[in-house]
Amino acid sequence: MTRSSTSRRWALRACAAGAVLALGAGSAMANNWPDKPITLVVPYTAGGPTDVVARLIAVPMGQSLGQTVLVENTVGAGGTIAPARVAKSKNDGYTILIHHMGMATAPALYKKLPYDPLKDFEYIGQVLDVPMTLLSRKDFPASNFKELQDYVKKNQDKVSLANAGIGAVSQLCGMLFMHQMGVKLTTVPYKGAGPAMNDLMGGQVDLLCDQTTQTVPVIKDGKRAKVFGVTTSERLSSLPEIPTLNEQGLKGFDVKVWHGMYAPKGTPKDVVDKINKALNVALKDDNVKKRIAELSSDLVSPEKATPEGLRKHLEAEVARWDKVIKAAGVTAE
């Protein structure tokens, strides 16, 4: 046997030994995981719709995992800073992300996105679907959707439309509303849904399209804002008296905000499976189900609350919103 062949054989043995050690280390980590708190990163401000969902499921998830799940709000750049942070985090399962449909719209909205939603993450599972509603300040001149249409078309240069910031679903919903109405309103971006809602109720802005997790308490109060319709194709069982925008003339208007949970690419499958199991425990929690129903939202089916369910949905949504956003002419730097 030649010296070169002997060297190659020793090199192959070394590689094999290294692979076994790496596999063993990964298995050991998965077996001991978690042995410290997990951070659940939210791309938006505290008190906003996604934050409400995160804090609601964090408690039962933590109980299931035997460790605290800490909610961290990492805001900015239209919700793209948080995914970028998680994508670059250590892939040990201790830093995970909850994000809404912004994961699917960001590739079309931003020219230079610091991460790839389809390549830089491991999928944990879908969480819930959230309808949206169109609201106005309580003293807005219109009292129903027909009056709103007439007023907006005649006074578009005077009407302001709030959103939770560039890239937020409220911005996308508002842009689609303007596109289908054939008007251009003065858009007012905020640093989160909470501040936008506060200014709407305070009368500083005219209109806002936002998620039911944020708007249902205001709608049921009936004194702080007016509601003109829901964004889904069918009426909500919790708000049956409120017609859809579709049935009132905006044909095909259907926006439902879905949420998913992600981990950095390369997170061990055993760890992802443990997080997924904890997520599914949380989705069956009685308090979670009660609170989500109160917010007129829908927890996803067990089939959707899986890595494969989220992967397929994200791929389909990226393709869908790419066409919608480009047709609407919505872009961000």
From TrEMBL:
Residues 1-30 form the signal peptide. Transmembrane segments: none annotated. Keywords: Signal. The keyword DNA damage does not apply. It holds the Pfam family TctC. It comes from the Bacteria. Belongs to the UPF0065 (bug) family. This is Tripartite tricarboxylate transporter substrate binding protein BugD. It comes from Comamonas terrigena. The lineage of its organism: Bacteria, Pseudomonadati, Pseudomonadota, Betaproteobacteria, Burkholderiales.
